[in-house]
Structures are given as structure tokens and as C-alpha cells.
């Protein structure tokens, strides 16, 4: 029971905003970078990479991939704080949500487990927000289609009214008669 208290205390020291800011969109996937994860887990980046390389069978391509030089350059320009030469000579590893979950089985420290739980909760929140937005977009599209149908139906009603108006028999015009009333100016 005491171990659970320790884990929850450690998780509360890292803000959700900090974690969200360490999630990047690369190759169309939400990922976290190895040096950010190492910092959060309280280990050196080279130790994290070493553990991953020892357990590569746990990290298929959809769990973890290495960034290309171009991706690394774009990431460095986005972050702005990465200094040339200040990091590993190897390209950074990017971990998807499943890869981050798998890291907890490779890095078995109390801090790694606590941080991992919090990261999983953040990924879940992000996924829920995206699903909520998708549901809203679908509802808006449904309303737009319904309004388009209403516009077409109203146009059709007016067309039928015009056709009906043309077909209605009109009374014959009355013959010319003398107007009845006061004449002015005579």
C-alpha cells in the first residue's frame, strides 16, 4: 500500500501541461522523444536507449522509430532549446503511446512507473479530446447536409407553386366599361 502512495506523490510533481508540451506530431503520430522521457524518468538518455536496444523485440516500428535527419532538424527548430552537439550522436528515438507504455516494462524504477502512469493518462485525455472534436464535426456535417436538403426542398416547393400558379384558370377580363367616379378638371 505504501508503494502506491509514493507513486501518486511523484506523479503530482509533474504538471500535465509539461507532459502535453513534450508530445509531438511526427509521421502523423503523437510521440515523445527519448531525451524528454529520460528526463521525466530520471535516467540518462543513453541508459534509456541502451535498455530499448537490449529489448528491441518489445519495440516494433509502430511503438518506436528513430527520427530521420530531416525530422530531427525540424524537431530542433520547433523546440529551439536543443543545442548542436549537446545530445547523442545517434538520432533520437520517438515513442508512440504504445512504446511509452512498453518502456515501463524495460525501465523498472518507481519514478518511471509513476511518470508512465501519468503519461498514459495524458495520452488518453488527448485521444478523448480528439474523439469529442470528431463527434462535433460529424454532427455539424450532418446538420449541413440536412440544411442543404431543406434548401433543395424549399426550392422545389417554390417551383411547384410557380407551375401551379401558371396552370390556375384566370377569370376572363371584363369588357371595357366607362369608369364610374368623379372627373377632375372638367
Automatic annotation (TrEMBL):
Annotated KilA-N DNA-binding domain residues: 21-106
Family matches, as Pfam families: ORF6N (PF10543)
InterPro entries per the UniProt record, alphabetical: KilA-N_DNA-bd_domain
Protein name per the record: ORF6N domain-containing protein
Native organism: Parapedobacter koreensis
Amino acid at each position: 500500500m505504501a508503494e502506491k502512495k509514493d507513486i501518486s506523490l511523484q506523479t503530482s510533481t509533474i504538471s500535465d501541461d509539461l507532459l502535453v508540451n513534450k508530445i509531438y506530431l511526427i509521421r502523423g503520430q503523437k510521440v515523445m522523444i527519448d531525451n524528454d522521457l529520460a528526463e521525466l524518468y530520471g535516467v540518462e538518455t543513453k541508459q534509456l536507449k541502451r535498455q530499448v536496444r537490449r529489448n528491441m523485440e518489445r519495440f516494433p516500428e509502430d511503438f518506436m522509430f528513430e527520427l530521420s535527419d530531416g525530422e530531427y532538424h525540424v524537431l530542433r527548430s520547433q523546440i529551439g532549446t536543443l543545442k548542436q552537439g549537446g545530445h547523442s550522436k545517434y538520432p533520437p528515438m520517438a515513442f508512440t503511446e504504445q512504446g511509452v507504455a512498453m518502456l515501463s516494462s524495460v525501465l523498472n524504477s518507481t519514478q518511471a512507473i509513476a511518470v508512465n502512469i501519468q503519461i498514459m493518462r495524458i495520452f488518453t485525455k488527448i485521444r478523448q479530446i480528439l474523439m469529442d472534436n470528431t463527434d462535433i464535426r460529424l454532427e455539424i456535417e450532418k446538420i449541413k447536409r440536412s440544411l442543404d436538403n431543406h434548401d433543395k426542398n424549399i426550392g422545389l416547393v417554390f417551383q411547384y407553386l410557380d407551375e401551379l400558379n401558371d396552370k390556375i384558370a384566370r377569370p376572363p377580363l371584363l369588357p371595357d366599361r366607362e369608369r364610374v367616379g368623379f372627373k377632375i378638371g372638367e
